[in-house]
Amino acid sequence: MISIKDLTIEEKLKLLTGKNGWQTCDLNGKIPSVIMADGPHGLRKIEFEKTENNAQNLNIVGVSYTRYATAMPNLSVLANSWSEEMAYLEGLTIADDCIEADVDILLAPGVNIKRNILNGRNFEYFSEDPLLTGKLARAYIDGVQDKGVGTSLKHFLGNNSEHDRNSTSSEIDERTMREIYTPAFEEALKAKPWTVMCSYNPVNGVYASQNKKILDGLLRKEFGFDGLIVSDWRAVHNHPKAVNATLDLRMPYEESAYQELKTAYDKGELSEQAVDYCLGNLFNLINKKIESKKIRKVTTSKEQRHENAVKIAKEGIVLLKNEENILPLKNVKNIAVCGYYNEMPPIGGGGSAKVVTSHKQTALSTLLEKMTGAKTVYDAVTLPGALNKIKYSKAFYKNLYNADVGILCLGENDLAVSEDYDRESMRLSSSQEELIISASKYNKNLIVVLYCGGAIDMSAWIDKVKAVVFVGFAGEGVNQAVASILTGETSPSGKLSETFPLNVYDSVTAGKVDDGQVEWYSEGVFVGYRYYDKCQKEVLYPFGHGLSYANFEYSNIKVVKNGKYNYTLSFDITNLSNIDAKEISQVYVKEVFPVVIRPEKELKAFSKDLIKAGETKRVSIELDKRAFAYYSVVYDDWTVENGEFEIEVGASSRDIRLKTKLSIE
Q1: pLDDT band at 384 (very low <50, low <70, confident <90, very high)
Q2: If we measure between CA atoms, which residue out of 461, 360, 328 comes closest to residue 450?
Q3: 609-641 burial: b if 16+ Cβ within 10 Å, else e
Q4: pLDDT at residue 393 greater than cutoff 80
Q5: Cα separation of 582 and 573, whole Å?
Q6: Residue-wise over 177-216: b if at least 16 C-beta within 10 A, else e?
């Protein structure tokens, strides 16, 4: 391959933008091109042309050719698994689809924090908590890149809402940025993603694509990122300023890109040194592609990839409510199932993260009938594709009345939850709420199965149902996973990675200052459960909540000091039930007498463990300086004050089972 010094300035400038929508420029074959594709939950590759070789793998809509791929659980569901093992498996699985499609870089994962509960893109982000987000993202990246496929960690920085994302500035103070919005990137960067993608929005008044403080100063110099920074698609507003800020690659191809750079170069506003720096990162990326070809090997069949999708979905489904232990379904003879999603459940949100799969669903009712032996009656009720249109029938209510249990398959789809716009409401459509309320008059044993992209306000109907199973958007294996949970074949082990407030008006961003040009992050570090705890707000379901069919007891907490700020925390978890199950234990740290305002407690570690029936397992967790530190804007560093700290171990953020104290001097 030719070197940078062999290129003319014209060729150099052309290389700083794409060849087309998904490839880097190859200078008419002089250098290899890097192929990129979406997305976080499965490959979304747009093919450039239809050929005999790829025709059977394409979903053809008009002139668009989208390659079929395995639709994996969305990152929000993956986060509810609290499992680094599952995150790694998801990355590994998607990588095989990438290898088959000759894709070099998967444009994922997204680690933006769930600040705004109505953010239309929350379904493709992990959590409201930076530690949980960072740990899972790191494992996901390892899974993809261990197969020789690169990743693109995104969106750096402050892209926490879709409304006006191209122009609204995220105004974030330094401490808040360091404690809430960058730690997930820091942790994920340990996996050495090949690229980082900048966000659309300005950050503190300057577009992320040309914000030298965050790109060069923070991402490169402080966090040590030495890969390529790519723009989000059409996120560059001033290309010369972007290059000077060390943004290496503008995507996709835009006709004006070259001339913008050439004009700035001719005027002396853009140096060849700055251009060569970006090209150095591009050439390093090309070399990674070439080297990775040596290790790329597909190791799973399409059937195995589907089974992986089912396995991950099982671990990410959350049992929110289970009154009178109505679940798992046992000794039931008649089941009434309703809702269009019984047959056609939404498998993901919309936009660039939408995956097209060739997998054909088996109806949940069919699976339940086969697995329980019960007679199952199904009524669509909801008209296909029309969430707000419900047709009621006397037959449906009669079936419900005569059933032992009623299962309502409800929620949102990829039209309601998507990139480019925010959700309009936290509530289900009024007709769906009315359906639940009406159904409760004919059957007191109602189970609501929710397919949603984020938190739901259940205030209108939560007291009318016995159980709520929060599925989220769980990929193509969703019905198999839900059936496994409902029948008790699998004990639910998912827990919420975001708080479910009582309503949208209780959420963090309700009533915040936003003048259409600037979004002021006035709540500071009090995002998610940090906010609800500090304000002592009642919530519907707290961060970390999730029920199991097993019963766990926590005991025998112990802390051992290993160094100045290093401790080993250990405790026992006993499974008091007669079934094997997994439990997610969460470790929170609180500074008792802080010198700056701090959250009541913060997640600093977690562990997911399989504990067999009657077994006691000793869980051991390491805590380091960051577990006790806050970011000091005076010292420009993470700082631990002398003082008292409390260590809390819980089954959720509001179900604390064990506490201990320690002093740091």
Answers
A1: very low
A2: 461
A3: bebeeeeebebebebeebbbbbbbeeeeeebbe
A4: no
A5: 11
A6: bbbbbbbbbbbbbebbbbbbbbbbbbbbeebbbbbbebbb
14 touches 20 (CB < 8 A): no
Q: In what order do the strands lie in the sheet with 567-575?
A: 552-561, 567-575, 616-623
Tokens 């519907």 -> residue: 540
For residue 541, the surrounding DSSP H or E stretch is strand 539-541
Q: Write out the two tokens for 619.
A: 């869980």
Would strands 58-61 and 64-67 be described as parallel, antiparallel, or unpaired? antiparallel
Cα angle: 156, vertex 161, 163; to 5 degrees = 125
CA-closest candidate to residue 276, choices 42, 515, 39, 11: 11
Return the residue matching tokens 């077994």: 615
The answer to whether the predicted template modeling score (pTM) of the entire model surpasses 0.90 is yes
**Residues assigned a catalytic role:** 232
Quick check: helix, strand or coil at residue 136? Answer: helix
> What is the Cα–Cα distance from 441 to 240, expressed in whole angstroms?
65
Print burial letters for 120-133: b (CB count within 10 Å at least 16), e (below 16). bbbbbbbbbbbbbb
Q: Which amino acid is at 162?
A: E
Judged on CB neighbours under 10 Å (0-12, 13-18, 19+), 411 is buried
pLDDT band, very low/low/confident/very high, at 386 (cuts 50, 70, 90): very low
